[in-house]
Design goal:
The protein has 450 residues and is an all-alpha fold. It is built from 25 helices and no strands. The protein folds into 3 domains: 16-160, Serine Threonine Protein Phosphatase 5, Tetratricopeptide repeat (Alpha Horseshoe), CATH 1.25.40; 229-310, Alpha Horseshoe (Serine Threonine Protein Phosphatase 5, Tetratricopeptide repeat), CATH 1.25.40; 316-448, Serine Threonine Protein Phosphatase 5, Tetratricopeptide repeat (Alpha Horseshoe), CATH 1.25.40. This is Tetratricopeptide repeat protein.
């Protein structure tokens, strides 16, 4: 038994022999498994979809499970859950699918549901270390730290010296105030994987709690060497230096002031760094500069809630870019006797010239001449969305999808419009779009659905 981090490894065991016998035809399942193994998840997803379509009369739970795996790694957690649901419907004792679905729920911060799945996986296979590890992570998120440690202990009993479990237990111990125990676990995890920045940062925070600012500074310095673009580490490096009264660097070494400056260079809105720099300036005899930084920290802090409320799930500029980027993808079609295509393409030209209102007139004419013209509904929806009529734009996408159930771009547009309207079901549309081959959907899922 081997512990697997993140999500379970591919379901090869037990199926490779049957696959090897398929020599006369392309095995989409085998192609997908190999692509999943190599990290080519978008192509893997397409092949699993083809396998699912090919075996629709006799569905294979392995295909659904591994397509869920691909979606998970493309950050499409809702879509992954749907595939794991189907895999479990077909194979009720599929403990790997329970774990994978639980991990997908965890990524959505739905830890109670995740724990239910991990419980079922453990019932089916009590020697699977991944289930205990994953359940411990969810318990840790729910602040049930002692129960989390119990699960991590069991996982380490089954798979000793697994660095992610050691680091997770270290975090739970720190939350309970056991900083010495936390540092001990981080030491072991770092010995196994020396360059993991989150392990080094975790140990540094535990050292800070024991007032070992010199030791914490050494860890933060190592993190900065490995990743110099993280404002938080620069801030805490400055914090440790301030505790050690190293306010200004000497002999080419940076002091707290330089670290706070760097943190603000990377994140100009970091209130903690404004405060820290103000503190250092006051220590260095610059009261005017200190007052400016303290005032900025206070004023910016008062605006934080307004900023959060103002930021939509998907803003207008992003909606415009994603929506209008699809206009050029439309291909030329043969002209029918009704000449609906002429009106359609004139509408496209009007859209590109910045006249969506007039374009809608042409799309209307095309649809009246050819009522099953899915592309015309779709592009009319884009034009309506450009004019701010998002509800009717969604209806046009609905019409396009009703006429062409595999219209990936229509699912995509409907999905991003829903997100702009704060309707999270848009993520399911994006998942379907990606499943149908429009891989740009996974970038939006990654940025706006998790």
């Amino acid at each position: 038994m081997k512990l697997r981090s993140g999500i379970l490894t591919l379901a090869f065991i037990g199926f490779s022999l049957s696959l090897s016998a398929q020599t006369t035809e392309i095995s989409f399942l085998e192609l997908g498994l190999n692509q999943n193994k190599s990290g080519n998840y978008a192509d893997a997803l397409r092949n699993f979809t083809l396998e699912i379509e090919k075996t629709a009369a006799n569905p294979n739970p392995i295909a659904f499970y591994n397509r869920g795996f691909a979606k998970y790694n493309l950050k499409d957690f809702q879509g992954a859950i749907l595939d794991f649901n189907k895999a479990l419907e077909l194979k009720t004792n599929y403990f790997e699918a329970f774990i994978a679905r639980g991990q997908s729920y965890s990524k959505q911060d739905n830890h109670p549901l995740a724990i239910q799945d991990y419980n079922e996986a453990i019932r089916l296979n009590p020697l699977e270390g991944t289930a205990y590890f994953s359940r411990g992570l969810s318990k840790n998120k729910l602040e049930n730290f002692r129960a989390a440690i119990t699960d991590f202990n069991k996982s380490l009993e089954l798979v000793p010296d697994y660095a992610p479990t050691l680091a997770a237990r270290a975090d739970s111990k720190a939350k309970l105030g056991d900083f010495a125990g936390s540092i001990e676990d981080y030491n072991k995890a770092i010995e196994i994987t020396p360059k993991r920045t989150n392990y080094l940062s975790g140990r540094a925070f535990a050292k800070m709690k024991t007032a070992d600012f010199k030791g914490a500074l050494a860890d933060f310095s190592e993190v900065i060497k490995l990743n110099p673009d993280r404002a938080e580490e620069w801030y805490y490096s400055g914090f440790c230096k301030a505790q050690l009264e190293n306010y200004r660097g000497e002999n080419g070494e940076k002091g707290a002031l330089e670290d706070f400056n760097k943190a603000l260079e990377l994140d100009p809105e970091m209130i903690e760094a404004m405060y820290g720099r103000g503190f250092v300036k006051s220590k260095l005899g610059d009261p005017r500069g200190a007052m400016e930084d303290f005032t900025r920290a206070i004023e910016f802090g008062n605006n934080e809630n307004a900023k959060i409320l103002y930021t939509a799930k998907l803003g207008k500029i992003q909606l415009d870019e994603l929506r209008n980027g699809l206009i050029d993808r439309t291909k030329m079609s043969d002209m029918s006797a009704s000449r609906a295509e002429v009106f359609f393409h004139r509408g496209l030209a009007k859209i590109k010239s910045g006249d969506p209102k007039s374009a809608i007139d042409d799309y209307n004419r095309a649809i009246s001449l050819q009522p099953t013209y899915a592309d015309a509904y779709f592009q009319r929806g884009i034009a309506k969305s450009n004019l701010g009529d998002q509800r009717n734009a969604i209806q046009d996408c609905n019409n396009a999808i009703d006429l062409n159930g595999k219209y990936a771009e229509a699912y995509f547009i409907r999905g991003i419009i829903k997100l702009a309207l704060n309707d999270s079901s848009g993520c399911l549309d994006l998942s379907k779009s990606g499943e149908l081959g429009y891989t740009a959907a996974y970038t939006v899922i990654r940025d706006f659905c998790n």
